[in-house]
């Protein structure tokens, strides 16, 4: 340094400078430590020019140490280096995971599934942004006003022809009818035996006179319910019945006697959450009025006097006598042996007795008897053991030979 830190002394005839102090280095302190005005403040500071990290948020050494106004500083003035998702330690902090400051991380995203629904968020993996939406593609269901696949609109249905009340199919002649409720819409709710939101189809029929009719949906592959209303499907009256599960199954069966007129039958998916599928509806006209009986043993009394000639036996030449019908239903898994006799009837008139399936007028005759071996009289009729099986409507009809009528006692065994 150039600092006067010693004094002159004479030693052995020679002037010397006696200075015990060491070199004075020009440190960064705003002083001329080396007493040399030509050197800048801090020129001898050992850290000057060394690498340094400034006041930014990263830990990266992007500046050098400088002396400014008597104080050490760092030329690293930013910008902050964010740790984005690129496989590099951008912020020079080994403790922060790759992508920890990436603005894209956590943003909503749609994965590789088939829908366009944003069901995941962005994540950093292997140095690149991905989406953690690993859900399966959401299938668009038509007709429920919900945009399941997030394409911007709900899908309309190309439904069955009888999807709306105004396009009900006329089933007056009877038969079996099919429809795909998977492409139908829900038109009516507020049903007493079903949940809400189920899709439905419409049928109409007209009865010219009072008659027993039968419905079932046993050929269907989803949970069904049936609802009957008087009137047209566009002007339905008060509900006649609401029928859900039958025969320990999710399918439906019902027989009912109705007055003459037009009716609307609605076949419905039990609720919006049940599986959709193909509907098979069977509608059978009983051909006459009658009294419902259980598919079990029992005894029934009555009279054919004054009753209409609604059906006729096919085991006698002719019969114009009044008759009485009893109807019962069997389930799909039923296999029954039916017997019946009029042996308890007063032997004052010639009887006939027959068992039919489907229509009591022109259905399949399973058994028919005129005269038999009743102990009371050979004029009283019996039905021997007759096998019945499968779902459907069945009849026992008490009739007279030619014009015979009278009081009777019918004993049924099943």
Give keywords.
414 residues; five-stranded mixed β-sheet
Instruction: Report the radius of gyration as a whole number of Å.
Output: 49 Å
Structural class call reads mainly beta
User: Got a strand count?
Assistant: 26
Low-confidence stretches: none
What count of helical segments does DSSP give?
0
Major β-sheet strand ordering: 9-11-16-13-14
Give a brief description:
With 414 residues, the chain is mainly beta. The protein has no helices and 26 strands.
Fold topology:
Elements: E1 7-11, E2 14-18, E3 51-52, E4 63-68, E5 71-74, E6 108-109, E7 120-125, E8 128-131, E9 169-170, E10 175-180, E11 200-207, E12 211-216, E13 224-230, E14 241-243, E15 253-258, E16 261-269, E17 278-285, E18 291-292, E19 298-303, E20 324-330, E21 335-341, E22 351-357, E23 364-369, E24 382-389, E25 392-400, E26 407-413
Parallel strand pairs: 9-11, 18-20
Antiparallel strand pairs: 1-2, 3-4, 4-5, 6-7, 7-8, 10-17, 11-16, 12-15, 12-17, 13-14, 13-16, 19-26, 20-25, 21-24, 21-26, 22-23, 22-25
Structure description:
With 414 residues, the chain is mainly β. The protein has no helices and 26 strands. It has strands at residues 7-11, 14-18, 51-52, 63-68, 71-74, 108-109, 120-125, 128-131, 169-170, 175-180, 200-207, 211-216, 224-230, 241-243, 253-258, 261-269, 278-285, 291-292, 298-303, 324-330, 335-341, 351-357, 364-369, 382-389, 392-400, 407-413. The chain is rod-shaped. The N and C termini lie far apart (130 Å). The mean pLDDT is 92.
């Amino acid at each position: 340094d150039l600092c006067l830190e010693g004094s002159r002394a004479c030693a052995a005839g020679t002037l010397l400078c006696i200075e015990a102090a060491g070199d004075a280095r020009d440190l960064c302190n705003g002083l001329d430590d080396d007493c040399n005005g030509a050197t800048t403040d801090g020129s001898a500071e050992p850290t000057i020019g060394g690498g340094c990290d400034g006041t930014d948020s990263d830990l990266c050494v992007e500046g050098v140490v400088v002396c400014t106004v008597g104080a050490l500083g760092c030329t690293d003035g930013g910008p902050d280096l964010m740790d984005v998702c690129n496989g590099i330690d951008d912020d020079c902090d080994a403790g922060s995971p790759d992508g920890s400051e990436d603005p894209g991380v956590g943003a909503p995203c749609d994965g590789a599934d088939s829908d366009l629904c944003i069901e995941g968020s962005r994540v950093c993996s292997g140095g690149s942004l991905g989406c953690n939406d690993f859900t399966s593609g959401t299938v668009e269901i038509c007709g429920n006003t919900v945009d399941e696949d997030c394409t911007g609109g709900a899908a309309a249905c190309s439904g069955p022809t009888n999807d709306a009340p105004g396009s009900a199919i006329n089933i007056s002649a009877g038969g079996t009818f099919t429809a795909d409720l998977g492409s139908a819409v829900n038109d009516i709710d507020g049903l007493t035996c079903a949940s809400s939101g189920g899709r439905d189809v419409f049928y109409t029929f007209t009865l010219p006179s009072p008659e027993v009719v039968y419905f079932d949906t046993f050929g269907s592959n989803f949970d069904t319910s049936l609802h009957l209303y008087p009137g047209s499907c566009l002007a339905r009256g008060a509900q006649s019945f609401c029928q859900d599960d039958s025969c320990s199954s999710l399918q439906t069966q019902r027989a009912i006697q109705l007055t003459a007129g037009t009716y609307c039958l609605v076949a419905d998916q039990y609720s919006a959450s049940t599986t959709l599928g193909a509907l098979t509806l069977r509608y059978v006209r009983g051909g006459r009025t009658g009294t419902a009986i259980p598919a079990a043993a029992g005894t029934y009394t009555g009279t054919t006097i004054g009753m209409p000639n609604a059906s006729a036996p096919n085991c006698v030449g002719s019969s114009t006598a009044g008759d009485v019908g009893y109807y019962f239903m069997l389930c799909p898994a039923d296999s029954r042996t039916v017997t019946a006799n009029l042996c308890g009837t007063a032997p004052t008139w010639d009887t006939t007795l027959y068992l039919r399936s489907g229509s009591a007028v022109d259905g399949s005759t399973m058994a028919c008897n005129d005269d038999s071996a009743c102990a009371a009289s050979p004029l009283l009729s019996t039905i021997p053991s007759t096998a019945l099986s499968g779902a459907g409507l069945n009849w026992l009809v008490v009739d007279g030979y030619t014009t015979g009528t009278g009081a009777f006692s019918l004993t049924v065994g099943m």
